[in-house]
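# nightly structure sweep
# worker-07 picked up a monomer target from the shared queue
# config: single-sequence mode, recycle default, output format = structure tokens
# input follows
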Amino acid sequence: MVIALKDKWIWDFWIYRDGDDYHAYFLQADNRLAHPDMRHRHVTQGHAVSKDLVNWTHLGTTFAPAAAPSWDDWTTWTGSTLRDDTGLWHLFYTGTEHAEEGMKQRLGHATSTDGHNWTRVGNGLALDISGPDYEEYTSGHWHDRAFRDPWVMKNPKGDGWIMYFVARRPGVAEPNAGGTIGFATSPDLYSWTLQPPVYAGGMFGQMEVPQVFEANGKWYMLFCTDGSHWSEAYKRFNTEEPVRGTHYLMADDPFGPWEVAPGPFFDGAQGSRYAGKIVTTDNGLVFMGFLHDAPDGSFIGQVSDPIPVRIDADGLLHTELDKLPPGAKV
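# output follows
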């Protein structure tokens, strides 16, 4: 069964495996709101756990915006979860505040001893924009200041920790050519140093909810975007009709250089899945995305069942829908 709630819409999510348990954290909002787009400003984070990525036990709301005034008093959006070497849980997330009308995104940090009840580190703020590599909010150019969706992992090449996130670079005339994947480093998960972007290829207006992982000696970075955010350069690179969905970058090194995978979007699916994640299981890789649009155009707001993933001889990723069990909802 999919990750679904009777009274809430679910959208962006991330999964952390802890032993035999898969922990899903996700954005949620009351589905009685007048319009699905209103969910973005009425958001909390939910938590569910599973042994098999199919049967889920919901544990309720796990995180929410802070009391005003605060840098994250309006929204607490997408992030990532992990445990450090001592076993302490860490949540990294995106926040916005009422005082700025939600136009400026910042990155936050909370910790937990049980993976469900979180305490902000200080006031929660972990990282803000600084320096020349990241675009500030400019009214009329882009609809917000992109600095969100942190994906944090242990540095696979040495000590410390690394963070990837959604950003934009300044001084780009074509709005759809400014999207980047930002980068930061930390020795201890508490003190972060902003670094230049690891990808600034001029292909998309934004590259949402990045996820980085290694498989078969290659590094992959999933991201999602809407067809309306394809740049003119990417339209020449990929001549399929612009589609909403999940695609990926490839690299031989987690620090790059990263390049957009050739061929069609990894998972376009006519816009029905978005913000996808690859999950490593004992039986191989699977892909999950949140279900966006029903055939009639209505918003679904659930997370799909896992779809098997194959890596071909060239290192390219492919979903294997023909291997789904009967009744899977994807």
